[in-house]
């Protein structure tokens, strides 16, 4: 098993050497990956090494152990922090505990005590590692939950809360076979519409569910059954849309059989067949409407909505699901996803064969959604369509659904390009604003990510990720490099004292300035000045 990584920070070299030499790191399951002589250096090393455990002294120059722990709790929230100190001070201990420090040890640190601490930390880290790696346990829990997840999937499908393009992936995830083709939904009500809830409770519904599972027979059809609200729902895969009439006859037979065998009253509403499982919500809506006709046609029978409302399925509207699909494709999708979405929309126009006025309304709903999307992103409508665009565009302006599709696709792709460019430009502008702020405030010793983010009105986490992605450097590294460059120029071009140059580049401690300068350039400030002038 890979050892856990340890970073040791103490300003006394003898103590660091003693701890490093006396501890059996490998035997305890650890590896000492770095040492630091002050808190500032430890913080920088932590960014590079990502240790699992940080051992730090309280009293150190440039940044003490408590400040280091506070910074690490933000940067490495999962790391275990151990603080040791030569001062038997309750206040230090109280502050350390408040920062989530795992252990507080008094100096002098002896090897047995440190070994016990590391053993406890290893046990904690082992438990965390096991929780992450025990995929078999997670898999077993997932399999135990599969029946519930499948029921939830079917329910969400009937409610229309799963996008059609997600159905296949979701079904595969739950190990369900939901192929494309003709599907229809049937809802079975137990008892009459006027009966009380007590007469239609869960036991009756479960009995009806078991009865339908046992006795349903329709060659070539495949059925999924579940409890759905106050009914039993059947999701039926048909050989073709015309088989819905055979399904109606089969449900009629089951209604009569339930009365004769169980004395149970069943009434079934059957929706129009749809083109795939992703459209079952519309079929379920039809099945609910069919049940509403029970008051006219009687109970204990199967009612097919197509017999009562033959044109019910012939509807065309750009709904909330379509709106979300458009936003997702344009904002986050690829060019191919945009093209597929537009093809699906134009296919609906072709298949419904509605009047010109109805198609025009559908088209205007799409255009309106695109305008809203453009404005929400801060783009002008003219950029998306054209300078002369007034919003007066008609379905009749196009000679075919294909031409309409090409026009919509071009507009959507243009919008995708504008929004993508806006995101890129926004990131670049943010980083340039940050650089300008740093350039104007690098002499301020209190310059920090927090002060910069307060100026930019951004979260520190988002800004740090953005700045590193755009510049290739962390905020700390960038500021240090800028300060060192300014310091080098002043050493070369002026006769100012080193401590004044330190102050003018944001360092209140001349010794720490010299330490950072030597680490950056390999020589002290005085030797650098002498070398440049020589």
From TrEMBL:
Keywords: Coiled coil, DNA-binding, Phosphoprotein, Transcription, Transcription regulation
Its biological purpose: May play the central regulatory role in sporulation. It may be an element of the effector pathway responsible for the activation of sporulation genes in response to nutritional stress. Spo0A may act in concert with spo0H (a sigma factor) to control the expression of some genes that are critical to the sporulation process.
Annotated coiled-coil segments of the chain: 118-145
Entry keyword Transferase: no
4-aspartylphosphate: modified positions: 57
Name of the protein this chain belongs to: Stage 0 sporulation protein A homolog
Pfam family, one: Response_reg
Gene3D superfamilies hit by this protein: 3.40.50.2300, Homeodomain-like
Boundaries of every Response regulatory domain copy: 5-122
Domain HTH araC/xylS-type: residue ranges: 432-531
């Amino acid at each position: 098993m890979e050892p856990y990584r340890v970073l040791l920070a103490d300003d006394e070299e003898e103590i660091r050497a003693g701890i490093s030499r006396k501890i059996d790191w490998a035997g305890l399951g650890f590896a000492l990956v770095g040492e630091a002589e002050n808190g500032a250096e430890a913080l920088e090393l932590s960014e590079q090494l990502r240790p699992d455990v940080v051992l730090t002294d309280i009293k150190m120059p440039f940044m003490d152990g408590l400040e280091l722990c506070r910074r690490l709790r933000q940067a490495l929230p999962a790391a275990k922090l151990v603080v040791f100190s030569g001062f038997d001070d309750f206040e230090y201990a109280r502050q350390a505990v408040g920062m989530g420090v795992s252990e507080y040890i008094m100096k002098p640190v002896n090897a047995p005590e440190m070994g016990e601490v590391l053993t406890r930390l290893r046990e904690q880290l082992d438990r965390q590692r096991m929780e992450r790696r025990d995929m078999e346990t997670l898999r077993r829990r997932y399999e135990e939950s599969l029946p519930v997840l499948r029921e939830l999937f079917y329910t969400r499908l009937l409610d229309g809360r799963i996008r059609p393009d997600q159905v296949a992936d979701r079904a595969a995830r739950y190990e369900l076979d939901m192929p494309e083709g003709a599907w229809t939904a049937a809802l079975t009500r137990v008892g009459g519409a006027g009966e009380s809830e007590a007469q239609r409770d869960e036991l009756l519904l479960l009995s009806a569910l078991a009865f339908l599972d046992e006795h349903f027979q329709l060659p070539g059809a495949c059925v999924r059954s579940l409890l759905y609200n106050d009914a039993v729902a059947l999701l039926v895969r048909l050989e073709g849309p015309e088989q819905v009439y055979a399904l109606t006859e089969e449900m009629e037979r089951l209604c009569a059989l339930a009365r004769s065998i169980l004395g149970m009253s069943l009434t079934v509403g059957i929706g129009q067949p749809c083109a795939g499982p992703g459209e079952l919500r519309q079929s379920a809506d039809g099945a609910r409407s069919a049940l509403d006709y029970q008051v006219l046609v009687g109970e204990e029978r199967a009612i097919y909505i197509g017999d009562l409302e033959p044109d019910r399925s012939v509807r065309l509207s750009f709904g909330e699901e379509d709106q979300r699909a458009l936003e997702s494709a344009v904002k986050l999708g690829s060019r191919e996803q945009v093209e597929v979405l537009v093809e699906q929309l134009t296919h609906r126009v072709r298949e419904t064969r509605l009047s010109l006025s109805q198609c025009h309304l559908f088209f205007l709903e799409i255009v309106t959604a695109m305008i809203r999307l453009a404005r929400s992103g801060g783009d002008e409508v003219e950029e998306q369509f054209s300078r002369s665009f007034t919003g007066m565009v008609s379905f009749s302006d196009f000679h075919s659904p294909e031409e309409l599709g090409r026009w919509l696709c071009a507009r959507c792709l243009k919008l995708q390009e504008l929004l993508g460019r806006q995101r890129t430009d926004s990131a670049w502008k943010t980083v340039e604003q940050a650089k300008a702020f740093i350039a104007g405030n690098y002499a301020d010793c209190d310059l920090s990510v927090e002060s910069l983010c307060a100026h930019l009105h951004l979260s520190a986490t988002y800004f740090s990720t953005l700045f590193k992605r755009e510049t290739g450097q962390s905020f700390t590294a960038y500021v240090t490099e800028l300060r060192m460059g300014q310091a080098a120029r002043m050493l070369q071009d002026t006769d100012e004292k080193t401590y004044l140059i330190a102050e003018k580049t944001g360092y209140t401690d001349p010794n720490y300035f010299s330490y950072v300068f030597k680490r950056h350039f390999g020589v002290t400030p005085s030797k650098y000045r002498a070398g440049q002038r020589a």
